[in-house]
Fold Mitochondrial potassium channel ATP-binding subunit.
Amino acid sequence: MWQLMQMNSCQLVRQRLLTNKSNVYFTNLMKSKPSNIVKRYFSEVKTSSEKNAKPGLLLLCSPWKLCTGVSLALGARYMLSSGPAYCKALVAHSRVIQRRPNIEEDTAKFDWEKFFSYLKPHKWLLVAAVASALVVAFLNVFIPMLLGEVVNVLARQRNNPSANFMEEIQIPALKLFGLYLAQAFFTFMYIHLLSQVGERVAAQMKQDLFQSILDQDMSFFDQERTGELVNRLTVDVQDFKSSFKQTISSGLRASTQIIGSSVSLLVISPQLTGLTLLCIPSVVIGGTFIGSLLRKLSREAQTQVEKSTLVAEEAISNMRTVRAFAGEENEAQLFAQECNAAAALSMELGLGIGLFQAGTNLFLNGMVLGTMFMGGHLMSTGQMSAGDVMAFLVNAQTVQRSVAQLSLLFGSVVKGISAGGRVFEYINRKPVMDQSGTAVIKYHEFHGDIEFKDVSFAYPSRPDAPVLKNFNLKIPAGKTVAIVGTSGNGKSTIAALLERFYDVNSGQITIDGVDIRDMDGKWLRGRALGIISQEPVLFASSVKENIRYGRPDASDAEIYRAAQTANAHEFILGFPEGYDTLVGERGMSLSGGQKQRIAIARAVLKNPPVLILDEATSALDSASEKVVQTALETAAKGRTVLVIAHRLSTIMNSDIIVVLNKGNIVEMGTHNELKKQKGLYWNLIKQQDQAAQETSKSL
Ligand SMILES: Nc1ncnc2c1ncn2[C@@H]1O[C@H](COP(=O)(O)OP(=O)(O)OP(=O)(O)O)[C@@H](O)[C@H]1O
């Protein structure tokens, strides 16, 4: 049993959804009957299979997985005295649909209009860059001719040495030097100007993309992978920028050079040009065929590299879970597997490129030899000079280099267009939720009467699974209302709807009679509501900056006062660097209770009239819970408070307790009233007392 769990534990890190689930959810699941655990197992499998029907079906059909699931479920019920984590493994197991990361097919369209709107502010820089690149191309066409003139002077000198060599060489050499200087100057100009345009456009695109991501609805983040979004911001913008710069610099230059140099070749020697043209079809056909094979291999290798990166990223970002389940070996194996597959493909690609390059070099060198042979013959019949042969060779080389650049560019343009398409797709993406509300309630007019009227709601990612149906609830101003109920009943959903993370499907939620959809969302979340959740999220900066996040314009004195209210001032001063102590990534260097008190200070600093406490103490041990509970009670004074409580000890001194079952209110009243009813609330109390006794016995 344990081995089975170990085998599946590393899969846990890939279950992003699980991070939305509280420990309480799993503790509760752990206490269910074995049949319920099995039921939940299959319900999770069903949900997953809805998302990804084919593999889901496979999972359901696989007898091995079925047996594992049932045995995990049955065993888990009896083995879980040490905590809810194993239940997480159970549910994670049921959610394992696809072991390997899914690299989605690229379907995004490139938005040319948007692209030009980014170029527009830099049009003059771009024109100057393009003009400079064209000048370089023209110079590259003329340089071989002048080089030919210089060679002719040298050849004449060898056949007929004369004293006025300096005079003869002076003019062509000076002209050539002038062209070299001009070529150097314009090369510098186009590279410098192009990098200015490229960097400015890329920076603007990145900012717009980030802003667009920040503006998306919460349902967008429920469905998108963090790694994918970060890739859009980094890799895709980078690929697009490189491709853009390369298209202008290499593409424009190479095309102009091909045309210019081809004309020069014809002028120098039509016979030699004709001979060269005869060889071209074989190069084009062979090159296209081998090139397409190599590109296919390159795409496969790239996709494989991305897969291995995703495996590493998920493991590193969930390191605590990996360590807690001793999943290092599995992760390392999986990474090695993906890495080796990527290396094998890249080696195959290397072999292909090597053979292709060697063959091309042999062919091209053969052509040079052939040109010299034929050129020598034409020289012997007086139809060409040594300088002409030299100019022809250099021009032919320019054409060859330019063609090679263009063929390389083709891959880069395809890559850049698809990367740009993905970036623009996200930039253009409009949130579905209507954000046009502007209503705000003046602070001194704010009472804090909250009402849910006939609210029905299903998460956008699961439209067929309604969480609330015709839900009605009044939270009077200045009162504390606690919502209790077993896991998965929709308690946190109520808080999420009040924060307007999602819009209700029907009905309305009002604060002081104003529909929250008509309110300015930033004001609603930023000023009116404060939330303290079970797992407070801190940023990797100092304690002070984390508290200031509640109100960026707060003074230091206000921050200290908020920390005092949150019972955090003392322990913060105990740190060697006090308020300037860095909390580490996601607050790793603090205890759960300390993190929570900093989160409370952050909410207190914001001074919101309505406070939402979403299982704010349920992740803490009983000693920390008491300290945090006191801090919460101080913070809650004079505000309307919505408490989402799984553990009944966290409902504080609530004025009204609402018992929720399957999204419906089944009991409502004060603690004493509900106890007397001996209904669901009474059962919950009994269950929790029993669980507490069992825990203390096992300790
Ligand atoms: N982001 C989401 N997307 C889709 N479904 C969700 C999402 N969050 C929650 N759900 C589903 O909505 C239902 C209610 O979940 P909710 O988190 O509100 O329950 P809860 O009573 O707060 O549970 P717990 O006490 O375990 O936190 C559950 O079936 C859950 O799976």
